[in-house]
């Protein structure tokens, strides 16, 4: 099971991971754009987006870990 990590992952986990990666990408793009144009409002607004992406990524870790522990107990 552990050799096929992505193949055995649930849809919920995959959605969490892709949403987290998308939010991180959007946050980084907003931050780069805000700093390039010297717009501190845009650069500051990007930080919660990056933070939400990181939180969702950690939630995905916890969710997948719980799934693996459940499957190993069976």
Structure, explained:
With 74 residues, this protein is mostly helical. The protein has one domain (10-73). The protein has two helices and no strands. Helix 1 (11-36) runs antiparallel to helix 2. 11% of the residues are buried.
Task: Give the SSE layout.
Layout: H1 11-36, H2 40-73
Q: Which characteristics define this entry?
A:
81% helix, 2 helices, 74 residues, elongated, single chain, mainly alpha
Domain count: the total is 1
Number of strands: 0
Largest sheet, strands/sense/barrel: none
What percentage of amino acids are in beta strands?
Answer: under 5%
State the low-pLDDT regions, or none: none
Distance between the termini: 13 Å
Q: Which structural class matches the secondary elements?
A: mainly alpha
Q: Order of SSEs, N→C?
A: HH
What value does the average pLDDT take? 92
- What is the global morphology? elongated
Contiguous helical run count: 2
Short description:
By secondary structure, the chain is an all-alpha fold. The protein has 2 helices and no strands. The protein has helices spanning 11-36, 40-73.
């Amino acid at each position: 099971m552990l050799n096929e990590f992505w193949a055995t992952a649930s849809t919920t986990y995959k959605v969490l991971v892709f949403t987290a990666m998308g939010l991180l990408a959007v946050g980084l793009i907003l931050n780069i754009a805000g700093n390039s144009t010297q717009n501190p409002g845009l650069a500051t607004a990007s930080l919660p987006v990056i933070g939400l992406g990181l939180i969702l990524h950690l939630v995905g870790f916890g969710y997948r870990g719980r799934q693996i522990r459940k499957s190993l107990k069976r």
